[in-house]
What we know:
The chain is built from ten helices and 14 strands. By secondary structure, it is an alpha/beta fold. The chain has a five-stranded mixed sheet. The protein has a five-stranded mixed sheet with strand order 11-8-12-7-13. It has a two-stranded antiparallel ribbon with strand order 1-2. The longest helix is centred in the N-terminal third of the chain and has 22 residues, at 59-80.
Amino acid sequence: MDVNALRIFSRVARLQSFSAAARELSISQSQASRAVADIEAELGALLLARTTRAVVPTEAGAEYLIRVEAVLDQLDDAEQSVRIDELRGTLRVGMPTSAGVREIIPRLPRFTERHPKLRIEILLDDRRQDLVREAVDVAIRIGTLPDSNATARLLTSYARVIVASPAYLADRGTPLSPDELIGHRIVYGPATTVNTAWTFMQDGVTTTVPAEPNIAFSDNEGAVAGAKAGLGITSIGFWTCREEIGDGSLVPILTAWSMAPTKVHAYFPLGRATRTAARAFINFLSDEFSGGFDGPPVR
């Protein structure tokens, strides 16, 4: 089967549009449509359901897409093996929204300048994607990793902080010890370390206090926005709120106590079969994060 036709099918299925795939591949829409129709005719199966609004893989098409992209990735890697320092093809990276927007995307220009022929697709989602079905080459994982046969690599870690807005603290008072959190309004995001309880450490002593959420958000950006709006106190990763701490819209509290740092891993769903481009991208991020992420100064 024509490899170019398979690449066209892959892009149409991912973009869910013949016209968008045609523009990306610099071909006509009719060429894209004909390539997919030829594959369907040869297989004797409908791979894409066409409507006036979208092009959506059928059940057979979704399964075929996963298998085809694995083959195309292997072909890209075979070509890459004889090209020195020139990455090509498509790299799909999954990551949480806050991590992507605040820490990774601003660093991407240095990577893309080195590899101008590599196309990168970033999947931003605070929920953990189905990496195989989404054809993700590597995912950035924050916190605890799921048990699996995948390969993971520790990239960095950063401090967790307790923060609130100046207006909230002026109105409700500033807790001076973990026990004084009781009675305060608590804001939760998905990255909160322990459900309904926060654990602090000081001088080798561990203290755990209940922290029932008064309001919870499905992503960390919502938790930061909620704390800024004065909805309450939140526990959040330092790199998710260091801009707000810097401009004073959030104030770190209980800085004489520490919380367990949050680890950041690169998660390779294909293990040893990880593509060259994914390994190169993670090597780049590892270098970028080598300086670490310190928390706010202890007061």
